[in-house]
Amino acid sequence: ERGPGRRGERERSEEGPAERGPGAAFHMFVLMEDLLDKLKLLSYEEEALRCHNMRPLSRHYFALPTNPGEQFFMFCTLAAWLITKAGRPFEQPQEYDDPNAVISNVLSELRSF
């Protein structure tokens, strides 16, 4: 049998935004703002975006699904830049690379950390 702690954890993970409270629907926006602050501390605009001629992220860029292809490429570009910044050589993905191969490479590199 499951202990009382495990059951409570499982029930919370299966709850929708309405069951978690009124602020749960906005949690993704808070996470995106935190991510953007951390990227700015790492000078992502100067180091990652300028060399790829990309626009800076908006405060809610990844929180709202506006253009999945563009958002995916931006995610992969930032992931590759962060891996390189961490001291590992990582080839920058191209816009028309196979998404499955790109994600597989990113995950493989992160697992090796």
From TrEMBL:
<dbReference type="GO" id="GO:0005929">
    <property type="term" value="C:cilium"/>
</dbReference>
<feature type="compositionally biased region" description="Basic and acidic residues">
    <location>
        <begin position="1"/>
        <end position="18"/>
    </location>
</feature>
<dbReference type="GO" id="GO:1905515">
    <property type="term" value="P:non-motile cilium assembly"/>
</dbReference>
<dbReference type="GO" id="GO:0005815">
    <property type="term" value="C:microtubule organizing center"/>
</dbReference>
<dbReference type="InterPro" id="IPR019530">
    <property type="entry name" value="Intra-flagellar_transport_57"/>
</dbReference>
<dbReference type="GO" id="GO:0005794">
    <property type="term" value="C:Golgi apparatus"/>
</dbReference>
<dbReference type="GO" id="GO:0042073">
    <property type="term" value="P:intraciliary transport"/>
</dbReference>
<dbReference type="GO" id="GO:0030992">
    <property type="term" value="C:intraciliary transport particle B"/>
</dbReference>
<feature type="region of interest" description="Disordered">
    <location>
        <begin position="1"/>
        <end position="22"/>
    </location>
</feature>
<protein>
    <recommendedName>
        <fullName>Intraflagellar transport protein 57 homolog</fullName>
    </recommendedName>
</protein>
<keyword id="KW-0969">Cilium</keyword>
<comment type="similarity">
    <text>Belongs to the IFT57 family.</text>
</comment>
<keyword id="KW-0966">Cell projection</keyword>
<dbReference type="Pfam" id="PF10498">
    <property type="entry name" value="IFT57"/>
</dbReference>
